[in-house]
Amino acid sequence: MATHSMTSLMKSDIYIDGHWIPTDSRFSVTNPATGETITEVADADETIAERAVEAAHQALPSWRAKTPRERGDLLRKWYQAILSNKQALAELMSAEQGKPIAEAAGEVEYGASFIDWFAGEAERVYGDVLPMTAADKRSWIIKQPIGVCAAITPWNFPNAMITRKVAPALAAGCTMVVKPPQLTPLSALAIAQLASEVGIPDGVLNIVPSTDSKNVGKVLTTHPFIRKFTFTGSTEVGKILTKQCADTVKKVSMELGGNAPFLVFDDADLDLAVEQLIACKFRNAGQTCVSANRVIVQESVVDEFINKLKPAVERLKVGPGDAEDVDFGPLIDQDAITKVQRLVTTAQSDGAKLVTGGKQLTDLGDLYFAATILRDVTPKMDVVQEEIFGPVVAISTFADEEEGVAMANDTDFGLAAYFCAGDVARIFRVSEQLQCGMVGINAGAISHAYNAFGGVKQSGVGREGSKYGLEEYMEAKTVVLGGLA
């Protein structure tokens, strides 16, 4: 098994049918920590995207014909190759995305865990024997791979957002085309290189980086060979892509925007609540879809909570991803900085009070923003209505449990929700009343390969991870056998 450096894993061409394809048109990938160009990447157009779909279509019959054990064995080899190259992959991810190398290494492990999990799940696809409808008939249900799949993935988790889509697809017997994000394509190309090295057949996995999101996305959502489309990103874009899939009636899974509440009740362990909020809010500089967006604290404990939270937030170290002991790095681009600064500024104009932070850290570079706490935030403020996607804690208050739950549910979104409480009866009540796909109770980290990841309302459809993740890439077929009398 090859052991790579960051440089030897840095691929910059399009990966189709086991081949690296250069193009005359290329785009720059920059390091958000420094603004420096890392490399120039081949830029796929509609024709190349169609070529990738054709390759996946041609590879489908032989991949589908492999036994679940054979597919699982190859996936495990891929898993081991990723772990063996964890440091190189982490350095590459940190360079293109900005997160600290240690956090990037954690993402590599997390992303690889989906490959390992679904390698095992490939052998646990069960059908059903149905009740007899007549003496001369027998009926049963079998599960089969849906076919060629396509994915569009986001920049905030350049490894894990791909593996948790690709792993179940390949385990099920599907082939796949992935359009990685323009801002962070290098991690996708690197893991494709490792897939090739361990023997995953040509055409089973194809990677098409592109700046032409609209037209390449149109190919992936309308091509008749593609039977399943999966997307992680904004609700606005997800709606457009879902509509485009409708004409060919593709199966879709959508992991879309969030506006996660983090409730702190008066019976909570406040030290634990602070610890878990820090873990939830500041991972990846707050640039996660399940990050706590609205921190809603019972008014009787809000002052004590803020007094504990403020020094913990001020201890966080901000800096480039390759620096020592950094807690979070830069935001991804200037648009992200502009948005966070606008939300903080308008919140203060509307009456919120700044507890700490609230400014760019220009001594570090153009894209760094201080860990920030705002209090006295009200539900109508933009910082509550919009997904912050930055290192800002926006604190509102509630009087009693009924009001707290109502405030938490007062959103069009329902991806994740969190709350801290001690009373067991309250824990059961609130967890059942929150309108979301995932709940963290006294826990700010809730993602795992074993867990079903996904949302309700306008946060999407479908689930990733867990046994349910494999179902997204399979079809149930009823078989009826007659003439048995």
UniProtKB/TrEMBL annotation:
What are the UniProt keywords, alphabetically? Oxidoreductase
Q: Which residues form the Aldehyde dehydrogenase domain?
A: 20-479
Tell me the superkingdom of the source: Bacteria
Name the InterPro entries on file. Ald_DH/histidinol_DH, Ald_DH_C, Ald_DH_CS_GLU, Ald_DH_N, Aldehyde_DH_dom, Aldehyde_DH_Superfamily, Succ_semiAld_DH
The UniProt entry annotates the active site at 255
Q: Which Pfam families match?
A: Aldedh
A GO term, aspect molecular function: succinate-semialdehyde dehydrogenase (NAD+) activity
Q: Which GO terms describe its biological process?
A: gamma-aminobutyric acid catabolic process
Q: Family, per the entry? A: Belongs to the aldehyde dehydrogenase family.
Q: What is this protein called?
A: Succinate-semialdehyde dehydrogenase / glutarate-semialdehyde dehydrogenase
Entry annotated with the keyword Oxidoreductase: yes
